[in-house]
Design a protein that fits this description.
Layout lengths: L1 E5 L9 H5 L3 H4 E7 L2 H5 L5 E8 L9 H12 L3 E4 L23 H7 L1 H22 L11 H5 E11 L2 H12 L4
Parallel strand pairs: 3-4, 3-5
Antiparallel strand pairs: 1-2, 2-4
Helix pairs in contact: 5-6
């Protein structure tokens, strides 16, 4: 399931944080959600276990690893959500058909402006926090049309999994809120 997600953006215009989210594709994107079939066909059953997955550095085109892992988890009755890092996967610049030049890997822009790495990480933490609060029904947004309330038990057990840069993000999420 693809679920529209909008990043928190309470930053002043022109600030480094606002510039990080300037292209809309970095701020408004789709989560990839892998939901157990039993939850989808039941009116009463809610997800009680979920794994939030964070991608690795420079992943821009391929969701294969996360699709296989998410599908496997859902088959075992555990939901999964891929929350992509800014400038990665479906949050990277789209490539036009017939374009001759390849897009630069995300690390190029991040390393050219080292502060972007910090703001990227900061934004990732804000997004993780927002997603967890939505999953636990602590934040209810009318634009979600009851998605989280319909599918997820507010007391669900949340696990985090990250690959490469996503591993750092998972560790940071755990250190920030070890009891969540």
């Amino acid at each position: 399931i693809l679920k529209r997600f909008e990043s928190p953006n309470g930053y002043a215009d022109g600030s480094p944080e606002a510039n990080l989210l300037k292209p809309d594709y970095t701020r408004v994107f789709h989560l990839r959600c892998y939901i157990p079939k039993s939850t989808l066909i039941s009116k009463e059953e809610r997800v009680r276990q979920i794994v939030i997955m964070f991608n690795g550095l420079n992943e821009v085109d391929r969701f294969d690893l996360y699709d296989v892992l998410g599908e496997h988890l859902a088959g075992k009755g555990i939901a999964a959500i891929l929350l992509p890092t800014p400038y990665h996967l479906n949050r990277s610049a789209p490539v036009r058909r017939g374009a001759r030049a390849e897009r630069a890997a995300p690390h190029v822009a991040l390393f050219q402006n080292p502060l972007l790495m910090y703001y990227n990480y900061k934004q990732s933490m804000l997004e993780s926090d927002l997603l967890i609060r939505k999953l636990r029904h602590a934040v209810i947004d009318d634009n979600d049309f009851g998605f989280y309330q319909t599918l997820f038990d507010p007391r669900l057990q949340i696990s985090i999994l990250g690959f490469s840069l996503g591993g750092l993000r998972a560790l940071g999420s755990f250190v920030l809120e070890p009891s969540d």
